[in-house]
Amino acid sequence: MAENENKQENVVVEDFKRTNAKKSKKKFRHRQQNPVLAFYEDNKQYLLLFGVIVVALAAILASILALKIPVVPVCLIIVLEAGIAVCLHDVPIWLHGLVVLVQIIAGAICGKLVFMVLCALVYVVGILSLKFIRE
């Protein structure tokens, strides 16, 4: 028991010093100077999600109205594109290129090249938005 009392940890004051205090003050000053940038930084993930939704809706409307493709297959394929983007957002860049290339080739074979280019656009926007949200 006497040995336990003699063995005390040496606590150094430097272990408890704050290191991010200056950074947080600079960040707060930066927010006061530019409120638009502060709004973007606070809501970045929501704005990027809104961008993906806008691109997906534009692809759906263009496919239905301009290309005369039925509604159900268009919506199903766009949702699948978003799901593939979520599942593959951590893979290397060459694999994303391969996925887009396969989509465009499949569209050329089926005679729906413009539709598959729109789907590839949804895929790329989804991948980029997930990349920027993680940063």
Automatic annotation (TrEMBL):
The chain crosses the membrane at residues 46-67, 74-95, 101-130. Keywords: Membrane, Transmembrane, Transmembrane helix. This is Uncharacterized protein. It comes from Roseburia inulinivorans.
